[in-house]
Amino acid sequence: MFLNCHSYHSLRYGTLSIEELVRQAYELGVKQLVLTDINTVTGIYDFKKECEAVGIKPIVGMEVRKDGKLLYITISKEFSGIGEVNKIITEYNCENKELSEVAPEFKNVFVIYPISNIPPILKEDEFIGVRIDELNFLIRPEYKKYISKMVVLHSITFGNDEEYELHKILRAIDNNTLLSKLTKKEICRQSEYFISEKELLKIFERYPEIISNTKNILDAYRFDFDFKQVKNKKFYTKSKEEDLKLLSRLAYSGLEKRYGLNHEIAKKRIEKELKVIDELNFCSYFLITWDIICYSNSMGFMHVGRGSGANSIVSYCLGITDICPLELDLYFERFLNLNRKTPPDFDIDWSWQNRDTILEYIFDRYGRDHVAFCGTNVEFKYKSIFREVGKVFGLPKEELDDLATKPMEIHDRNSVVQMVQKYGRLLEKYPNQRSMHSCGILISEEPITNYTALEMPPKGFPIVQFDMNVAEDIGLEKFDILSQRGLGTINDTVNLIKKTRGIKVDIRDTALSKDEVKCNEYLAIGRTIGCFYIESPAMRGLLRRLKCDNYRTLVAASSIIRPGVAQSGMMREYIFRHNNPDKFEYFHSVFEENLKETYGIMVYQEDVIKIAQYFGGLSLADGDILRRAMSGKGRSLKKLQQVKDNFFNSCKRKGHSEQLTTEAFRQIESFAGYSFCKAHSASYAVESYQSLYLKVHYPLEFMVSVINNQGGFYRTEVYIHEAKMSGGNIQVPCVNSSEFQTTLKGTDIYLGLMLLAGLETKLAHDIVKEREINGEYKSLENFIKRINIGIETIQILIFIGAFRFTSKPKNELLVEARLLLINFKPENRGLMLIEEPVQEFKLPQLKRENFEDAFDEIELIGFPVSCSPFDLLKTKYRGSVFVKDLLKFHKRQVKMLAYLISRKHVPTKKGTMYFGTWIDINGDYFDTAHFPNNLKEYDFQGGGCYLLLGTVEVDFHFPTITIHKMAKMPMIPDPRYSYDKEKQYDIHRQIKEDVSMTSRKPYPQTHEIALPRHKI
Questions:
Q1: So what's the pLDDT on residue 631?
Q2: pLDDT at 476 over 80
Q3: Ramachandran region, residue 629 (left: φ > 0; alpha: ψ -120 to 50; beta: rest)
Q4: Which of 456, 628, 824, 923 could form a disulfide with 94 if both were Cys (CB 3.0 to 4.6 A apart)?
Q5: 3-state SS string for 11-56
Q6: Cα 494 to Cα 488: distance, rounded to the nearest angstrom
Q7: How far apart are alpha carbons 110 and 77 in whole angstroms?
Q8: Residues 6 or more apart in contact with residue 158 via CB below 8 angstroms
Q9: What are the entry keywords (predicted)?
């Protein structure tokens, strides 16, 4: 009898999860239940599964509202009816088509109007819903005549009194108002919770027609839906046979290009793969991906195909990926096998500058009725919960900041804060809003509105109303269309090299990105700042510990840095075995046969599957459950336990001892965190190597491109320092030489106008555009005549030195600008300055102190350019030991002066510790470790230079300094404020540092890993 149930997918309205809604109905003996969330079908597929699991007949529809007002409730007669409703909501969301007060002509939909919105004429399948508190209206003639078209309308929105209060809080959040100011119209009735059907029938017993109409609707509906049937675009051509024919032709054509005509091993692998692809009906999936890549190539875009799709030789021959599966012995079954229950996916990266063009092509090529992004449900998070809930209780901003930033235990204990905490806890994990999946695109065979309504987020591409897990569940496979800055850097560097040197670098030539002597030297010493994926302090430290001097080791390093390997302790063990290959033995022959390349250690997802299969005798289906657990998908503890039981039983049958089996599974289990498949690591390694090749051979072009692509792990200052270390002559922005982005002229690097935070983007572009059209600016006066600018912005440009071509000191330019702009009206700019000659101002000589420019630079772009941070220190001391000599000081105490680059917060069993990255006076990088007990007395004091005292620990060729004491070194007072003692140290607080946080568990030490180095 419940025709109108809301779950919490009625965002900021309902309080019940799908599971809880169904559970409460089941406990009351309900046999038929209707889910009608507000303007959404997010929960209908989970609802069907939950209902059928407990023997309830699931019925679905949608409650249609406009601006919070209930227009009508729709209930599908069959599944196609949902598509009809989805279509009108999609037009409302995406095309701004108004929702009418009266429902349109539906074919397979029942419509229920509230008593407050009865249309002039009721169609055959249209009814009026009557609530319990509206029954007394039925004695009135205007309502009495409709009794034969009425149904029971007992809505469900919350579960109990506490949740009713939570509902009101959600409504206040949604309406951005105080709880006390909510009106009755903005909240649901206080009766919208489950009561027994018996009780409900008793209330309506005087109106058997109403009860009968309600039952007829419930009995008429069938939710027939095949979850297993693939809903993606079926064929790229016109049929399955033609798809296979085209895919085979393209694969063999690519085989010839990649391997030549007579490569029998490659040919056999292609035959095998094509057979599996065809049997699993994935030909169209490959061909659509190939089509997108063809378009990308035609536009001259660079892409990287990665993920498990790079395990396939067919994808390699089609040009989707650039990783040879034979060279790296990649395991196709990791990507696709006949036992796999879920569809595979390709991860394709483009530059962040090109991705929107690719997306437009996909939407246009495959039809906007058939293409959409996956949605994601953004949940209420800790900080946002306390801000949002605190706001509706009327707390001031200062208290909201405290609630959001301080741990719950130290919050004020007053009654309002206690209420905020109480309801805040209840809100955790509630969906708050829908957003766009970062990369998942769906391409359907039937119109996508058959399955979901679409929404239009600010980014401008429509999204479905469910997430990738539901999409996968119902048979819609996503195409991952990603973007990253690393590819933008590579692409821009190649273009810049062509422009500055006239050299065309074919960066996709794999001969460049595999084994280049000088690149290998850089890799081995971790000289990789700016390079994709391999520039972080942790990665540079790993490269040095491994003395990584080849592509294969780089592939392994790309995976062992991942949390799954590092946190299991396998990274530490890998480093030991790599450096001591004669100091261990494989504890079983299967590990030697399958994992020899990685010294018997599971580094890639495939390694776990191989050990499970060849050592444990598990089926590929069980291996797939392990794979999904390792990639963070479908982490079902129950299924994992079944796999574990199968593993132990199988090992027993194979004759393995219990000790051996326990150790093997311990290693599998410890690895079951996030990790890469080998092909993914290989793809990353190729891109890393491409970046490195450009850094090694074209360092200035490369660093300029890194700066323009807004860097990677570090702040811009670090990349400018790196450019300087590579021979670049850094110039502050100039109105005659700078572009919007940073530019290279010979060895001069002109910082872009975009780096001036106080300069509007439009104005920065206007300065460049005007110069391109009418030539360089001749003077400050000439600039003011041509650019519509105010005194505040002129000051920014003067202080940064953008008018240094005039050879006038900044003080003089500033006075001149004020005299020019005094009583100046922008609308008269052209008239006044063209018709009247510019006055020559005779100004007194204005003296500037040393380092005033440096402090201007810190204020305007965040760091000094005209000098080094060390030059601004009061002390002349520069340290007793330098980075170049650290390897000689193992276990010895050193005193160093260093500039802080970044620090990473890491939890340990004893409290927080930090790893710091610094540069010395020579500009060389080094790393430090700061333990909890030491940080109590010698903590970080923000960005700047520090005096460090610590002991050098050389761990496999990599020195780290364990800090005992440190002190931030005072800088000279700001010479610009010599007359104002209070302001002399204000700017010092603007010296930056990069702080990154992590919530991972502490890495285990060698003795805690206890990985056997001998046979068992």
A1: 57
A2: yes
A3: alpha
A4: 456
A5: CCCCCCCHHHHHHHHHHCCCCEEEECCECCCCCHHHHHHHHHHCCC
A6: 10
A7: 7
A8: 14, 15, 16, 164, 166, 167, 188, 192, 193
A9: DNA replication, DNA-directed DNA polymerase, Nucleotidyltransferase, Transferase
The amino acid sitting at 225 is: F
Distance from chain centroid for Cα 84: 34
Q: Are 565 and 675 in contact (CB under 8 A)?
A: yes
Q: What does the alpha-carbon distance between residue 189 and residue 184 come to, in Å, rounded to a whole number?
A: 8
Alpha helices, H only, 336-479 = 355-366, 382-392, 397-405, 415-427, 468-473
The DSSP bridge pattern shows strands 748-750 and 925-930 to be unpaired
CA distance 900 to 837: 52
Question: In this structure, how many other beta carbons lie within 10 angstroms of the beta carbon of residue 778?
Answer: 13
Distance CA 2, CA 649 (A): 49
Q: How far is CA 805 from CA 46, 736, 744, 777, 889, in A?
A: 68, 8, 18, 9, 49
Starting at the edge strand found earlier in the chain, the sheet holding 32-35 runs 2-5, 32-35, 57-66, 69-76, 109-114, 126-130, 150-152
Average pLDDT, the chain: 90
The strand order across the sheet containing 729-731 reads 729-731, 748-750, 743-745
Has residue 833 got a pLDDT over 60?
no
Cβ atoms of residues 894 and 926 within 8 Å: no
pLDDT score recorded for residue 834: 46
> Which among 697, 696, 723 is positioned nearest to 708, based on CA atoms?
723
- Among 243, 352, 244, residue whose Cα is nearest residue 304: 352
**CA–CA dist 865, 875 (Å, integer):** 20
* Measured distance CA(789)–CA(427) in Å, rounded: 49
Residues 518-535 as b/e (b if ≥16 CB within 10 A, e otherwise) read ebbebbbebbbbbbbbbb
Q: Is the pLDDT of residue 438 over 80?
A: yes
For the chain, give the longest Cα–Cα distance: 101
Q: Answer yes or no: is pLDDT of 854 > 90.
A: yes
Write out the DSSP string of 783-840. HHHHS---HHHHHHHHHHTTTGGG---HHHHHHHHHHHHTT--GGGHHHHHHHSPPPP
Q: If you count them, how many residues does the chain have?
A: 1016
Out of 7-11, 56-60, 550-554, least confident range: 550-554
Residue 65, both tokens: 């509202």
**Residue 10: HSE in the Cβ half-sphere, 13 Å Cα cutoff:** 29
Q: What is the sign, positive or negative, of the torsion defined by CA atoms of 771, 773, 779, 781?
A: negative
pLDDT digits (tens, 9 = 90+) for 229-243: 889 999 999 999 999
The angle subtended at Cα 828 by Cα 823 and Cα 832, nearest 5°, is 85
Distance CA 983, CA 988 (A): 10
What does the alpha-carbon distance between residue 33 and residue 35 come to, in Å, rounded to a whole number?
7
**925 bridge partner residues:** 919
Are the C-beta atoms of 746 and 766 separated by less than 8 Å?
no
Cα gap 45→450, rounded to integer Å = 13
What's the start-to-end Cα distance of the chain, in Å?
65
Helix (H) or strand (E) holding 213: helix 208-220
Give this prediction's pTM.
0.86
Cα–Cα distance measured from residue 571 to residue 560, given in angstroms and rounded to the nearest whole number: 5
The answer to whether 884 and 922 are in contact (CB under 8 A) is yes
- Looking at residue 232, what DSSP letter applies? B
Structure tokens at 99: 């929702």
